[in-house]
Design goal:
It is a single chain. The chain has a single domain, classed as Aldolase class I (TIM Barrel). Helix content is about 30%, strand content about 15%. It contains ten helices and eight strands. It has helices at about 65-80, 95-100, 135-140, 145-155, 180-185, 215-230, 240-245, 245-255, 260, 290-300, and strands spanning about 30-35, 85, 105-110, 125-130, 165-170, 195-200, 265-270, 270-275. The structure holds S-adenosylmethionine (SAM) and iron/sulfur cluster (2 copies).
């Protein structure tokens, strides 16, 4: 679903950052935000929503660190933001900026491709490291040699490294049958756990990666449930969030997307931030969205999906 094509059931997108400045209404409050601190990336992953056409992703002349941090502070105060998800592009290409920005927020998560050396930012910071399968599945998506580089970087973490390191796998139609191989690779390492986020396709996308609909996607949910049963404690998707991904409830959740109200997406556009339709950009298919963040949030709150869950 695109920003212009939102259905009437869909929550309205976040307002442009300056839209309310001329009114007396209080600015909307967002407990969390995600920020792309750079549009530069050292990888070019085939599935990446950031670099899709129509999203703010130009890496020329992007905001200098001082302005970016000052804007984050202003937006924090304006919108009551307490939790920040640091993203990009690759956020660790600007790790000094990220390090400075951590102090602005109560809780910080850094989503990284894991190819840049990790910095110990202390016990209150979580690294979410992206890996999309075992080597022969991950590397065709994320780049040749990337799997080994990430595993080497994680293996090289000192024993007293304090920041928490977990993995996130974007689950799609092409890797769904190889997830156990990834789990087995990660289990003996310093990764503390793994979440699966189901692929978010473009509006109208027909590709080997995208399930045709949520009915076709259901087999992948059962695969994750099976892994949860066999590797207890390591797969962190909650059972309720997985149940909500099933066809009976998925569309109710995405029609009332909890992230739209709780997470302010901040993309860089030149010397300013801009808010696209949602964290996944502008040209998304909400009906097939399986974002971990959406379903994890829905699982924690009551919503119209409660009435339909079996
Ligand atoms: C856009 S990346 C930015 C941070 C960093 N460069 C990385 O790869 O982790 C943030 C997360 O979004 C995931 N992602 C990219 N495209 C996606 C898509 N179409 N659907 C769901 N997740 C996606 C990535 O795999 C990664 O875990
Ligand atoms: S590393 Fe992250 S931002 Fe870069 S292309 Fe891959 S998913 Fe996108
Ligand atoms: S997070 Fe998913 S459901 Fe929510 S608006 Fe974006 S694509 Fe749609």
């Amino acid at each position: 679903m695109s920003r212009l094509g939102a259905s009437s059931l869909q929550e309205p997108p976040p307002e442009p950052l300056g839209a309310r400045r001329l009114t007396m209404e209080p600015p909307p409050q967002y407990p969390g935000a995600m920020v792309n601190v750079t549009n530069h990336c050292n990888l070019a992953c085939a599935h990446c929503f950031v670099f899709r056409e129509g999203n703010p992703n130009d890496s020329d002349g992007e905001m200098k660190p001082e302005r970016l941090l000052a804007e984050l502070e202003r937006l924090r105060d304006r919108h009551g933001i307490r939790r920040m998800m640091w993203m990009g592009g690759e956020p660790m290409l600007r790790w000094r900026l990220v390090e400075q920005g951590l102090a602005l927020f109560e809780k910080n998560t850094i989503t990284t491709n894991g190819t840049v050396v990790f910095k110990d930012f202390g016990p209150d910071v979580t690294y979410v490291v992206s890996l999309d399968g075992p080597r022969d599945v991950n590397d065709p998506v994320r780049g040749e040699g990337v799997f080994d580089r990430v595993m080497q970087n994680v293996a090289a973490l000192p024993d007293d490294f304090q920041s928490m390191v977990m993995a996130q796998c974007v689950l799609h139609r092409e890797n769904q049958h190889r997830l156990e191989d990834l789990v087995r690779e990660l289990l003996p390492t310093k990764f503390r756990g793994l979440t699966f986020s189901f692929y978010v396709p473009r509006a109208g996308e027909v590709s080997p990666r995208a399930w045709a609909d949520v009915e076709e996607r259901e087999a992948a949910i059962d695969i994750v449930f099976d892994l949860k049963r066999r590797y207890p404690g390591f797969i962190w998707n909650s059972s309720r969030s997985l149940e909500l991904l099933r066809p009976a409830t998925a569309k109710i959740v995405t029609d009332h997307c909890p992230m739209q109200k709780t997470m302010l997406p901040l993309y860089i556009e030149g010397n300013d931030f801009t808010t696209p339709y949602c964290c996944y950009g502008n040209d998304v298919d909400c009906d097939r969205c399986g974002s971990w963040g959406v379903f994890a949030a829905a699982a924690k709150i009551s919503g119209p999906w409660d009435a339909l869950q079996t």
